Amino acid sequence: MASTTTTTAAAAAARFTCLAPATRPASASASAGRFLLPAQHWGAATTHGSAAVPVPIVAAAPSRRWAPGVAYATAATGKSVHDFTVKDIDGKDVALSKFKGRALLIVNVASQCGLTTANYTELSHLYEKYKTQGFEILAFPCNQFGAQEPGSNPQIKQFACTRFKAEFPIFDKVDVNGPNTAPIYKFLKSSAGGFLGDLVKWNFEKFLAILTAIAVVAISGHAPPAASTAAGDRAALLSFSSGVHGNLSDWGSPAAAMCNWTGVRCDNHSGRVTGLLLSNSNLAGVISPAIANLSMLEKLYLDGNHLAGGVPPELGALSRLRELSLHYNLLGGQIPEALGRLTSVTYLTLDGNGLAGDIPEAIFCNCSGLTFIGMSGNSLTGDIPLRPPCRLPALRQLSLFGNALSGVLPPALSNCTALRWLLLQDNSLSGELPPEMFGSMPSLVFLYLSHNHFSSSDGNTNLEPFFSSLVNCTGLLELGVASAGVGGEIPAIIGNVSSANLSSLFLSGNRIAGKIPPAIGNLHNLTELCLFGNMLEGPIPPEILRPPRLALLDLSKNRIVGEIPRSVGESRLLETINLSQNKLKGTLPESLSNLTQLEHLVLHHNMLSGTIPPVLNCNLMLDLSYNKLTDQIPSEITVLGNFHVYLNLSNNLLDGHVPLQIGNMEMTQALDL
């Protein structure tokens, strides 16, 4: 009979396996050397994720009460596990005879399975507890189930030994099924007999060879890890809550049914958990992989909390999940490739965390029903992984701004014909602006490509095809291509771009040359026009002041000449005018006094002359420095002085006395005369 220590370890090994269907083995003849875990104990000991105390396996005569998930057989050939030689993870030969006298738990492992964290954690705990008491774990990586062990041997070794501190032996990657099945696995399957048939069913299938290596027990790991009852859901929720603290005071209370716990939503008929809605719940801690046991979960909202650690790859096992919202937390590490198995997901947000590494291509390729992808405000690198034949035909918002993405805009983006928000600013994207791409997105409302490194092969960019393609985007409201590396001239066709709707046009910080086209004035709903920091020349066309809702006009840091149009005072909603660092001449228009909403008037570093108009309704910032203004400072300029935050009239040709009323400008923070 096996020792109590060894059999207790074997029972503990069974604890964290997935339950197989409760099928009776095909053959159950009596045979000496079988090790039987009584069925009445098995349920308590093997429920995935439970805290059941391991029970000993005992040698017993055959019983009609077979434990589900365990197969019993004797090796008819007399051959033993110890007769095999295998290669370890470093490629060295290892004779299994070195493990004679020890109970062996042999398991096929995978790094990207929904069961990975739970199994590696429990395997490590199990090994630590029993390694000095005649127990050994032999792990064989296998990539045959969902391609969930794709890495090289060094990568697998680093994953297991760094993340999970695995000390048990890890061997060379093998096949456990098919024509290239490793000899050791041919023997194990044959010895296990009828329960497995000819196949290992899934990752983390466990074979327990006890002492003599003649009796082999197969502990199945192929059934889904998810709880199959409401009671299992409750256990999964409590496991999740044990890893966080926050507004979950009613969780686990005998007075509150599970479906009435904060944030929990259940199906009315089955009582199973379908939603976990805990946005902005002041939660801190880590996201437990136990959430993956909520097999009926459709909505998971954990955004706006203080959750740290990584995104559990086990979430990829939630086949019914439609909405996953993890934005604005403290999550780090990489986005798990396993999220690409969420084939039902339509809404995915990971914005505002500390995620790094590449975006998994599987998300863009397998989750074809996605309508919303949010990964902005992280530290993601690599390219945008959208390549044929992958398509996202339903995608309405792609938000990747504020990362370190590189490469060109993928041509396959043109297949995202339903896009309304394309937010790619603040990255390191390069290449040309492909006009045909945006022409195929007629529903675009927000297009932001600012702060990237676009250019053409000759260092110049023909903007006409780009703006021509946007003519089809009749609903476009905001266009941002600032500091994007583009050059060339602004074409007159810009006036036809979504003329009924475009409200914001940001083309600043580029290498755009030539004159400002008067056709911009055809954008009747324009409220913001930013062209600063380019190489624009010529005068300011009065037509660009035509849009009646214009509130922001910034043409600073160019080479603009001529005078400020007298019609500027007709744009009554102007709040900010910045024409600084140009070559403007002439006098300040008297009509500026009509701008009652004006808060910022910035005209420094020009060649303006004449006097300062007595009435300038500028409430926050007035900077007329470095011009050629003459005469006295008008005392009227102090009438609104209590609202001035910044007043700079320095480096002009002003003379006379400084108005005494300036001493009453109590709210002014900076004054330079």
Question: Any overview of this molecule?
Answer:
By secondary structure, this protein is of the alpha/beta class. Among the domains are: 216 residues, Glutaredoxin, CATH 3.40.30.10; 116 residues, Alpha-Beta Horseshoe (Leucine-rich repeat, LRR (right-handed beta-alpha superhelix)), CATH 3.80.10.10; 100 residues, Alpha-Beta Horseshoe (Leucine-rich repeat, LRR (right-handed beta-alpha superhelix)), CATH 3.80.10.10. It has an 18-stranded mixed beta sheet, with no helix packed on it. Strands 3-9-8-6-7 form a five-stranded mixed beta sheet, sandwiched between helices. Strand 11 and strand 12 form a beta hairpin. The chain starts with a helix and ends with a strand. 44% of the residues are buried.
Question: What descriptive keywords fit this protein?
Answer:
673 residues, alpha/beta, Glutaredoxin, Leucine-rich repeat, LRR (right-handed beta-alpha superhelix), 18-stranded mixed sheet, 9 helices, 43 strands, 13% helix, 21% strand, disordered N terminus
